[in-house]
Write a structure and sequence with these properties.
two-stranded antiparallel ribbon; disordered N terminus; 364 residues; Farnesyl Diphosphate Synthase; mainly alpha; 17 helices; 73% helix
């Protein structure tokens, strides 16, 4: 599918007036307002800026025009969600004890663990301030109240999801239902927030809110599943990203793939697998090697692909509803192009092992 389409280029094109480039400039200027010591944080200069981008698409789906001035306004608004996202990453890397992200030092490695906690609070406060400033400029009304409620609920959901994760019991690590519930509150919540904020900011059709939310939900789930699949698809890519081959479960963290492995095993093997992922007495490299063997020996990828196919089919059904309601063929095609682009990027991170099979399901 050609990417030379007007809406797509308006958001992600190379022009200096595309939304992504305007946002990058806005972000680079904003991080200079951080306390000087932290304005050079390595984690602040990396990232795909996916959440601000999806906020912009949420606005576009209302049918409103996206001129240069509106892009600047949306970029100021979108600062809040990137700040919130960064706050969660600082805590996530700290809890998981990851050394790096995207090849750059984690905040707690560059600075300290205490500073990571305190600066994440600073970022949340900064996020709320940027959101309020953006809403004040367009005057407070029911739309603004709705967006603020969405923001506060997202923070509560993400914090509660993280609390659930750090309190995972041994039998929870292999529960697909439990892990999905945590993902609902973390990854899915913030992606939904971005899409819905953009849509509400543009005063979109209230009757489509649930459809927009379901599309955001499925996007979030797909991204999390592909993220969890990374260490099983390419050890090299995962090490370059995290600084080590991280399957999460060794520190009692959620990973959907671990739950999928467990449910693919015969009864007699399930206890041995649970003992393995809880056995911190062994060398962690040995444990990871054995987990990867369980994954490959039991064709777990087939169950994962079947699950992804179901999610993608559900997403397609909601996309059809969206197509009928927005009555703008070019906009709909370009939004699909954007989703294709983001799924391709996520699949690349998994590595070459399952690229073709994942693409057959997710890229349409």
């Amino acid at each position: 599918m050609s990417l030379n389409v007007s809406y797509y280029n308006s958001v992600l094109g190379e022009s200096s007036t595309s939304f992504i480039n305007i946002f990058r400039n806005t972000w680079n200027q904003h991080i200079k307002t951080f306390p000087k010591k932290y304005s050079v944080g390595e984690q602040f200069v990396i990232g795909e800026r996916f959440r601000p981008i999806i906020l912009c698409w949420g606005y576009l789906l209302t049918g409103n025009e996206l001129g240069t001035e509106k892009k600047k306004e949306l970029s100021e608004l979108a600062l809040y969600i990137e700040l919130l996202h960064k706050a969660t990453l600082l805590i996530d890397d700290l809890i998981d004890n990851d050394f790096s992200r995207h090849g750059k030092r984690a905040f707690h490695i560059q600075y300290s663990r205490d500073e990571a906690i305190l600066f994440s609070i600073f970022l949340i406060g900064d996020s709320l301030q940027k959101l309020l400033n953006s809403l004040i400029q367009v005057h407070f009304d029911e739309k603004s109240n709705s967006i603020i409620k969405l923001f506060s609920q997202t923070i509560k959901d993400m914090a509660y999801g993280a609390l659930q994760e750090v309190n995972l019991k041994s039998d929870h690590l292999t529960s697909i239902k439990m892990i999905k519930d945590i993902i609902e509150k973390q990854t899915i919540s913030i992606i939904n927030n971005g899409l819905l904020t953009g849509y509400k900011f543009g005063q979109g059709n209230q009757n489509l809110l649930e459809v927009i939310e379901r599309i955001g939900h499925d996007c979030g789930y797909i991204f999390q599943l592909l993220n969890d699949l990374e260490p099983f698809g390419s050890t090299t890519i995962n090490i370059n990203h995290k600084g080590r081959n991280n399957v999460d479960v060794l520190s009692s963290r959620k990973n959907l793939i671990i739950a999928f492995i467990y449910h693919s095993l015969k009864t007699k093997d399930k206890r041995a697998f649970q003992d393995l992922i809880l056995n911190n007495m062994q060398d962690k490299l040995i444990i990871v090697t054995k987990i990867l063997a369980y994954f490959s020996d039991n064709n777990v990828i087939d169950s994962i692909l079947a699950n992804l196919k179901d999610v993608r089919l559900n997403m397609n059904r909601n996309m059809l509803i969206l197509d009928k309601e927005i009555k703008n063929a070019s906009l709909f095609v370009d939004f699909k192009t954007f989703l294709t682009y983001t799924f391709q990027k996520a699949i690349e991170r998994v590595g070459p092992s399952y690229r073709t099979r994942l693409s057959d399901i997710l890229i349409t």
